Amino acid sequence: MTLYPQLILDALKNVRYPGTGKDLVEMGMVEDNIRIDGMNVTFSLLFEKPNDPFIRSVVKAAETAILTYVSPEVNIKGNITVKARQLARPEPDKLLPQVKNIIAVSSGKGGVGKSTVAANLAVALAGMGYKVGLLDADIFGPSQPKMFHVEEARPYMVEVDGRELIEPIENYGVKMLSIGFFVNKEDAILWRGAMASNALKQLIGDANWGELDYFLIDLPPGTSDIHLTMVQTLAITGAIVVSTPQEVALADARKGISMFTGEKVNVPVLGLIENMSWFTPAELPENRYYLFGKEGCRRLAEELDIPLLGQIPIVQSICEGGDQGEPVALNPETMTGAAFRELAENLVGQIDYRNAHLAPTERVHVTKGGH
Predict the structure, then answer these.
(1) CA atoms lying within 13 Å on the CB side of residue 353
(2) pLDDT tens column, 217-231
(3) What is the rounded radius of gyration, in angstroms, for the C-alpha atoms of the chain?
(4) pTM of the predicted model, to two decimals?
């Protein structure tokens, strides 16, 4: 019997991909590399993702179809190569080899103080002795340069191991990069999703971050292409979600948590942070006024079985610190500084807890050598 490529293709038209019901040839999954040497046949099947759940069953079905519709004498078993259109998510030691923990700081909606929390959390971690980096991934509303009092700074290039890399701006013990350093602060950023994603990839992969214990990513509010870019570009240790106790904010926080825990993203949620928990006047430090509702994030955390990492009050000094570029976490002796210090300690503790209760292959990357 003489074999030729069309015989193989005709056989593969009888194999349907479970995800769509279409046959392999119709879906373009058979690469144009069918090689025939006597009765020996080799070719490649192209899947969308390297971790496609149907790879094994489709390969087996393809082998069976060729043996059934072409000839049982065909040598095909073990000769089908699997390829993926999308690259596998890089491991931490591939893209940021010296970064131990990558934490996404997210919020379901804008206006809940996510960036303020990210800035103060970074400063608090640095104050505890950890090496900390902060990426301002909120492309369309970069605010970290102002919060760190480095709006006028302009990163420069340095040569590292033969590569030209962007040197992050450092202040308060935190290395930081933001798209705000590269655009006029008065101009609106009108970019399509792909442009924003590519810019962030450059700030991650072409920057001299060096050794870091914690790399915080201040994500845009809501869910977007940028969130997907981050989880596809980096192996994120976990996400923390910021919300106010208000029901409207909690509804969006729930969606944000669902995004991270969903099948497409699959990033563990390390905890929920309640910002603007209560108002405490400076002259009445013992008084609490619950302007946006009481214990809303605690109830949501209990419902979804995730930790409540901290509750941050509404205090004028937090707002002033952000506006003046002096985060309140710089002074852990104050009430507000202590709140962010406790938040940082709880985050570190949560990572320790997860490592103690997960199998070695599931553990997040934590270091105790940062102090």
Answers:
(1) 11
(2) 999 887 676 777 777
(3) 25
(4) 0.70
